[in-house]
Amino acid sequence: MISDLVKRKDGKELLRLSVEEENHEAGLAFAKLVFTGGYSGERINNEEQTLTKKEMDRHAKDTSRADAQTCIVRGAEVGDLGCIEEAADMYLFGRSLPGTFGALVIKCTYKKAVVYYQMLLEHDYASTELVGLAHFRMGVLIKALDKNDKDKDWSLIIYHWELARNFSGEGADLATAQLARYYYYEKKNYDRAIPLLVSIQSTSPYSALLLGLAYKHGNGVKKDQFQYNQLLAHWNKNA
Prior knowledge:
Distance between the termini: 41 Å
Number of strands: 0
Largest sheet: none
Oligomer: single chain
Helix content: over 70%
Structural class: mainly alpha
Number of helices: 12
Low-confidence stretches: none
């Protein structure tokens, strides 16, 4: 039933099921439909013609996004795994925001994202791939929230990225790339950075480029112009 409603892009019925029947699967489907542009809401009654078509469309879109956010949060609060995952991503990627906002608002959404990623980490049925990705994104969020770049406390960031590497999937690869960059640039610890870069050079073009620069300048490895050229070519082809 839910899949049929999604195919028909029947956001109105999905929202009704979510609100009236507390169907969190329907609420999740509604939110994803809204966030991907498949449903833009219902226009309000404008018999007095006080609003332009553009204003009515904007109102409908903003209302649907607010409804989507409510559906996701409601499902997440009762432990629905799909809703928790969507809530975390929603606040991380700004899907809950209807327009352009300043740093203060974005910081607030990041703080909310941390809460939901932590819920994912504590969920009994979260897959190993999802847990790994959650650890990676927790590290990214903590890094973004700590604006003091000169005296940034990296310990908790590194903690989550190291944990992410214990799990298979996208999170492990992303965490490895970030750790390599951290040890290369922030710590100048090439003994730690180079093995990480080597392990991920085939799947991470930026890591391949960084490894190439290490060969060019002799940072942690013997200078090798041929290796640099090869890795630079990989970057140019795949970036």
